[in-house]
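Repro case for the chain-ordering regression, as requested:
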Amino acid sequence: MSMIPDSAATPTPVAERETDGLFACPACDALMQAHEVAAGETARCPRCGERLEAPRRDAMTRIIMLALAALILMVAAIFFPFLEVGVAGRSNRASLLDTVTAFSSGLTAPLTFAMAALIVILPVIRFVSLIYVLGPMAAGRPPARHAWRVFRLVEALRPWAMAEVFIVGVAVALVKVAGLAQVSLGPAFWAFVALVIVTVLKDNFMCRVTVWKTLDARRQS
Amino acid sequence: MQGNGLENTGRAPAVLTARRAGLVGCTHCGKVHARGRERCARCGARLESRDERSLQRVWAWWFAGLVVYVPANLYPMLVTTMLGSTSQSTIMGGVIDLMHHGSYGVATIVFVASICIPVGKFLAIAYLALSIRHRVSMSAHGRQVLFEAVEFIGRWSMIDVFVVAILSSLVQLDFAASIHPGIAAVSFALSVAFTMLSAQSFDPRLIWDASEEDAA
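-- result from build under test --
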């Protein structure tokens, strides 16, 4: 991307067609001449350094695979035992659903919904939506219906899907409990750890500008 | 655009922005449109040259977050019953307990996530919002980095809420030991959510506009 010198400071009305080759930095609004960014390269804004575009080879296919893997791991994480704690012959086993519903009594009840959303529902919505949007892209087909709306939702939910924050919370809780009881990790715990790794990998491959451009190109063709 | 001299580091060079060219750029996909268009032709996001009410929303969420952050620190986060005796611990109390047990590493994680990050976030968002109207010493670039850090780090404050949830679902051993969540967990979770919304409402393009006005 190269910046445009500020010679034309006086605003002039521009026809829609003329703005096609331009790109505005989403973070600082600097106007640039849009260039094709090759796979593997990263385009940054020359003024503020914001990462503008970072297409990766086969990114769409990889993201779909990772999202599918994450969905399967989420099912495993929900239904297998998560953690088990025992002291003096008594033991208690908690699944991920028990964790989510821990706040279900008294004044803390609304937090149950928030927990379910942050840990399970929003991540699942993101995985399913990504497969819905990128599936036709990877297969070289025209975009699915409402793909634009769905991908905007994927982006808006990004900060609210907190699987990786949750796993650090689990680690802290384990240390707290370790002093007073015997804790053992269930298969769901490891499924969830894998889920976090897959999610982080997937988000690294994703470049929203590339997705928007691809959606746009497929619509017109 | 990189080498603009050391004297200039605090000032952004005069740059043609989409706004100054009489255009409007989409903050979602970067596509440039003529002024007056309402939605982006590429991604369908709402177009706004500058979000005029951005600062109002930032401050509204900021105050809401601050209001619920106070009870989050005063009321108990965890109610622990061990062998018949009940004790309550606040956020800070939990950190001190961990230190007594000798788990300094975990105590640090909880202290950073539940106290340093929320307080730092309140200060950082207030500083960024004030820097739009008032001249500050930090460069536009520094403020951009600060904003990105606030957006990235905010959600990690949720750790303590998750810890409470896990502990209270796991430690249910009748008489021997049981843990229940306290009301502070709710207000703390709300505080984190409100400050995340506050940071999301901020339009970083305002930082660069303000720094250009200073330079001019």
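Ordering looks correct now. Chain A touches chain B through 81 residues (CB under 8 Å).
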